Amino acid sequence: MGERVIVETVSDQPAPEHRRPEGVSDATIEALGKLSAAVDHVEHARGHLYAFHRLIGSAERTLEEATDLLRDAGHDAIAADLDRKVLGRNPLPGMWTFQMVEAFDDGYYAEATGLQQRAIDELVEGRRHIFEAEMKELRRTRGIEGHEATPDDADGQI
Fold first, then answer.
1. What DSSP designation does 144 have?
2. Which of 6, 75, 80, 124 could form a disulfide with 70 if both were Cys (CB 3.0 to 4.6 A apart)?
3. Up-side HSE of residue 128: CA atoms within 13 Å toward CB?
4. Burial class (CB in 10 A: 0-12, 13-18, 19+), 130
């Protein structure tokens, strides 16, 4: 088992942008932490939506190739049905996937991230991730390598 290396750090405190402003309650920090977690889920869902967009695009190109191969093999009726019923079809009524992405980005995503930013600006002077920074402070072991408060304290160790 490796030895724990004691590290002298510059401040051994979170960066100022990750410290709770004076007078902000635990309840507010907890609520902002939960909001951050919720928006993380929204970001993850957005990634899946973009993956869906890419996969449908790839499927469309592959279906086109399959349609051509079926036609070349003499299966004109199936190829014709693929042309009419699947290729170029809207995956959802009236929308191709780029329209789904735009609708999500401009609607739900914009509202969720905009309100999160408003909460951060109004409640904690624009400081992000205070809940997480305080969790880090509770869990890290001061003076031990790999447990530094900030990247500046890590002395270039990654």
1. B
2. 75
3. 6
4. buried
**Nearest to residue 101, comparing CAs of 61, 57, 35?**
57
Q: Judge contact between 5 and 148, C-beta under 8 A.
A: no
158 residues of the chain, pLDDT tens digit each:
566 665 555 578 888 899 999 999 999 999 999 999 999 999 999 999 999 999 999 999 999 999 999 999 999 999 999 999 999 999 999 999 999 999 999 999 999 999 999 999 999 999 999 999 999 988 888 888 888 888 877 765 55
88: its two tokens: 């170029």
Contact residues for 123 (Cβ-Cβ < 8 A; gap 6+): 24, 28, 32
